[in-house]
Amino acid sequence: MTDEEQSSADGLADRRGMNVHVYQPAEDSGLLAQAAVEYPVSGTVLEVGTGSGWVSQQVQEKTDARVVGTDINPHACRQARERGVEAARANLLTPFRDGSLDAVLFNPPYLPTDPDNEWDDWMEHALSGGKSGRELIDPFLDDVGRVLAPDGVVLLLVSSLTGFDAVVKRAESQGFTVETAVQESYPFETLTVLALSE
Ligand SMILES: C[S@@+](CC[C@H](N)C(=O)[O-])C[C@H]1O[C@@H](n2cnc3c(N)ncnc32)[C@H](O)[C@@H]1O
């Protein structure tokens, strides 16, 4: 598809209310928002991979936190801004200064995906966690301690499809204490929001 064709497809999808490029709120989004509001997070809060911006909007409206959202997908940043969320395009935590965030929220792309079945579009970025399901989660866990302020917290959504024990082990190896904030079981997976603190 040429850029021009892509742009008119975007316009048509937008006019019909379809969101072909941006992950829309689902059970996992709801669980992450619930955990952040119940915790509750406060101060300066980053939502990595904000998608439609719905989670950030919930946190903004239901806590006293100042919330910033980032996403690798420019369409997502635009949708989040339309919801009133301050959003910027970024890869994981790259632009953030050491010790600058009181809480970091992340509902990552987590589905284990055979490299032969990868599809090269924005929905792949939203859903695919690569072969292990943890190809975004691992570098996130390796860097997130750097950006946390003292007493900061990470709320990370983990699916049973992703290898729950491997995620907990990686977080512990980075010096985090790991607790379950909320957990919900569905027919095909159990979703957990982990609270990581130092
Ligand atoms: C499962 S969706 C979650 C969207 C939203 N937070 C929610 O809960 O409804 C994962 C999001 O992460 C974004 N993402 C993927 N890779 C990323 C990266 N390297 N840096 C930042 N965001 C990324 C995707 O574009 C997508 O919007």
How would you describe the overall organization of this protein?
The structure is a single chain. The protein has 198 residues and is of the alpha/beta class. The protein has a single domain (22-197), classed as Vaccinia Virus protein VP39 (Rossmann fold, 3-Layer(aba) Sandwich), CATH 3.40.50. Helix content is 35%, strand content 25%. It has seven helices and seven strands, in the order ααβαβαββααβαββ. It has helices spanning 3-15, 27-38, 54-62, 74-82, 122-127, 137-147, 164-173; strands at residues 44-48, 66-71, 86-89, 101-106, 148-159, 177-185, 190-197. A seven-stranded mixed β-sheet has the order 3-2-1-4-5-7-6, with helices on both faces. A hairpin with a 4-residue loop joins strand 6 (177-185) and strand 7 (190-197). Helix 2 runs parallel beside helix 3 (54-62). It is globular. The termini are far apart. Bound molecules: S-adenosylmethionine. S-adenosylmethionine binds at residues 23, 25, 28-29, 32, 48-52, 54-55, 70-73, 76, 91-92, 107-109, 125-126, 136. Residues 23, 25, 28-29, 32, 48-52, 54-55, 70-73, 76, 91-92, 107-109, 125-126, 136 line the site of S-adenosylmethionine (SAM).
